[in-house]
Amino acid sequence: MHNINMSFSRILIPVDFTINTEVAVKKAIELCEGPGMTIHLLHVPDLIPTSAFGYYRYLAKYSLNNDTEVSAEVKYRLEEWLDYIKKTRTGILASYSVTYSSSVEKAIIEKAKSIAADLVIIGKNCQHSLLPFLNTVISGRIARRTGTSVLTVKPGALSNQVRTVVVPVGPMFPANKLAIINSLGNKFRIHIRLLILVQKGDDPDSLQTALLNVCRVLKNRSFNNISYDVLKVGNKGWDIFHYCQRVDADLLIVQGSEDRIGWMNKDISDQLPVNSKTQVLAVSQTNYSII
């Protein structure tokens, strides 16, 4: 049996000073727990060089990789958020850093690794469902490259409490999904909806065994509000997306290809409208057989 205890004690939040920052910070305050609770804010300035001079100035800033040239306004706004976090919930340490990078996603990955983050929370108030290449921050990709869970939230989830949690189940079930469920169960009264995904060529016995093992572990952890549905999938991502809409999910926990939609590999979180209350939590791809 693998350890299925988890706490989010070190949370990283990329901030852009929009509604994204507000929703991500409030979710972090809600989820942060355990010893040494820390929320770290990361700001990556939006640098778009418009001239040769600007381009070389950008290179100089990037090579410094510090906040020596950060404007007073940016520092003031970051300090404001630190004060908000500390005043809203005592016991949480708060810090920030400013990183110049040609890639926001790369900066997030490097910072998550350097602080050994337990969770990255990304707020999104945009929807690139038609042109996914415009989205330069992919939650599932960050989770795969860091081994850290990544929560994506839209403004519609700002004041919404987690109640209905959708968890796709396959023949091999990742123990880190169970760890997250266990952590959520300590904070919220959740209804766990296990979604058994049946694809062509799957062994029904393996799926049934996986389901029974997951249910057994959850019952042993005193989770009693559990239900399950069997879903024959063609396009896994689309089928999961429509299921979440149908059951009015508050949270979807995904791993691997479960968060990808269509032949263009759109991210589920980008398909969700800005006012969606559904949060998407991508976990790393390490699989374990639950016995």
Can you give a write-up of this model?
There is one protein chain. The chain is α/β, with parallel strands linked by helices and 291 residues long. The chain has 2 domains: 10-155, Rossmann fold (3-Layer(aba) Sandwich), CATH 3.40.50; 157-283, HUPs (Rossmann fold). The chain is 36% helix and 21% strand. It is built from 9 helices and 12 strands. The chain has helices spanning 19-31, 52-64, 72-88, 104-114, 139-146, 175-185, 204-220, 236-247, 268-271, and strands at 10-14, 38-43, 93-98, 119-123, 149-153, 164-169, 191-198, 226-232, 251-255, 260-261, 266-267, 279-283. A 10-stranded mixed beta sheet has the order 3-2-1-4-5-12-9-6-7-8, sandwiched between helices. The longest helix has 17 residues, at 72-88. The chain is globular, with a radius of gyration of 20 Å. It starts with 9 loop residues before the first strand and ends in an 8-residue tail after the last strand. Mean pLDDT is 83; it is low at 47-55, 61-68, 129-134 and 287-291.
